[in-house]
Amino acid sequence: MKWGIIGTGNMGQVLTHAFLQSQLLNQHDLYLTTRTMEKAYTLKEEFPNVQITDNVFDLIEEVDTIFLCVKPLEMVKLLQEIKHVISKDQLLVSITSGISVNQIESIVNCQVARMVPSITNRALSGVSLITFGERVDPQRRELFYKRCKRFSEPIEIEEKQIRIASDMVSCGPAFFAFLAKKYIQEADSQTAITTDEASTLMEKMFVGFGKLLAEKHYSLNELIEKVCVKGGITGVGIEALEGRSDELFKQLIHSTHHKFSEDKKEIYKEVKVQ
User: Fold this and answer.
1) How far apart are alpha carbons 227 and 271 in whole angstroms?
2) For residues 156 and 137, what is the distance between their CA atoms, to the nearest angstrom?
3) Which of 38, 57, 82, 110 is surrounded by the fewest CB atoms within 10 Å?
4) How far is CA 224 from the centre of its chain?
């Protein structure tokens, strides 16, 4: 088994760590290439036996599974460049939600899947969202799904659900980190706690919060019920949040879906031109 990653930006780096630290792959079985080669060589400093190539075609010749970790609007051009060198037995995996497996299959003749990762996969945790194309044979599908379990909880997702699911799984850590950061800033501004002190408390709270859910001590609703004593301080805080949260998340979903729609239109133009 040899896997290749084209593009070693943020998510390409996450996948590199996930594949190797989970021991899914040996270092010498992972091939990397990217437009900015310094990023690939930075990863090689940490994993000295990974294979680095400055040629996409050389990478494709060596591997059985190819991960495309490039920006959505760069995807179609790259697919056009590599479609003649990919064999029908290879699996091409896009990590981009904006281009569907059907669109990719319209360009290349190999087996196609999409796996939207999360930064939480860096800790060998969290979810990866998977969609398989029609050409993926059943055995390959089952094997790929099992391999993804080494660094995540893979969940198959329908095309109509991909944006909201990606918001929760892939964008979610940034959204909730942003909210936590705003909370910390206000705590520093309005009380005697410092930003560093509040950050430490918040980070440790998130770790404990995650364990409560992971170990199934409580559901989200149960957590609220257990902490929120009627007439207590938590209840007052929940009331303050309730007055603002509906509009906040409504606007969040509207914004991400609008951007997603715009990106898909641009991608569709590229696919149609090709």
Assistant:
1) 51
2) 16
3) 38
4) 28
